Amino acid sequence: MNLKTVFRPTRKHAAVLGAVAGVATLTLTASTPANAAKPEHRASQTKPTVVLVHGAFADASSWNGVIKRLERAGYPVVAPANPLRGLASDSDYIHSFLKSVNGPVVLVGHSYGGSVISEAAAGDPDVKALVYIAAFAPEKGETAGEITDKFPGSTLGSTLNAVPFTLPGGGTGTDLYIKADKFHDQFAADVPESVTDLMAATQRPVAASVFDEEATKAAWKTIPSWDLVTTEDKNITLDAQRFMAQRAHAHTVEIKASHAVTVSRPGAVTRLIEQAAQATVR
Q: How far is CA 45 from the centre of its chain?
């Protein structure tokens, strides 16, 4: 294509265009000092994605206060639903979900969610840190039930309501709920009752079998870990939490809070997650 034949200005057009070009040149010259430095193109620091895994008797909304704070700090955050059907299947689900996340990950688990992240993170090079929030961190071959029995004092058992359900392949399983009138004192004593009434009504049940299912992996052995230990916890005793945190050589913070620390103290939870992110992802 011959550009001269496509755009062939008349003398009048040429004069107008010349005047416009002159004005543009003067404007650029006036607005840009001769000694101005060239703009610097810096590569933006990419923050890891924080993946939050809830535990039993809760759902992903239990992370809402933490999510708001992390997003305000510039972190991408996702909180997938934990099926709560069995340790192996729950871990496989979260492991598969992690494949959809690009780049480095800080994987966080609350309560039974700690057991899940310990398995789900194994063999995933993108998981740079594990953060346990009032959580189980079992050894390979260990069950949550064994840890609970080893460190007695949990009052959870007496507050539970067992509801049978039909298994997909036949047979009967048992779902566990915390009784509504026991939920506040047992699970979230430092959360207003107006909130815990809603939490009790919307709680996700956990299959009773998860507490007797042996862990097959312990990712905390190879991935740096952080642990928020709740000293007023009635679900997982203080001694049990301390034992697991020390065994994992986790960076540990203790806080006076109930098991529902993600709801009652989201700021403290967020700070620990940020510490893990800053220490492991550069």
A: 20
Distance CA 121, CA 130 (A): 8
Q: What's the CA gap between 249 and 226, in Å, rounded?
A: 9
Distance set, CA 142 to CA 137, 182, 209, 216 (Å): 9, 29, 14, 8
Q: Can you give the pLDDT at residue 45?
A: 52
- Dihedral, CA atoms, 116, 180, 228, 219, nearest 10 degrees? -10
What distance in Å separates the CA atoms of residue 281 and residue 50, rounded to the nearest whole number?
12
Taking Cα atoms as reference points, which of 53, 70, 78, 108 lies closest to residue 250? 108
Residue among 3, 101, 10, 4 at smallest CA distance from 52: 101
CA 240 to chain centre: 22
Kindly list the distances between the CA atom of residue 5 and the CA atoms of 1, 2, 8, 9, 133, in Å, as whole numbers in the listed order: 8, 6, 6, 10, 72
Q: What is the largest CA-CA distance in the chain?
A: 96
Model confidence pLDDT, tens digit, residues 91-134:
999 999 999 999 999 999 999 999 999 999 999 999 999 999 99
44 has a pLDDT exceeding 90: no
Q: Which residues contact 134 (CB under 8 A, 6 or more apart)?
A: 110, 111, 228, 229, 230, 233, 235, 236, 241, 257, 259, 261
CA-to-CA distance for 89 and 97, rounded, in angstroms? 12
Residue range 62-90: average pLDDT? Answer: 98
**Overall average pLDDT of the 76-85 stretch:** 98
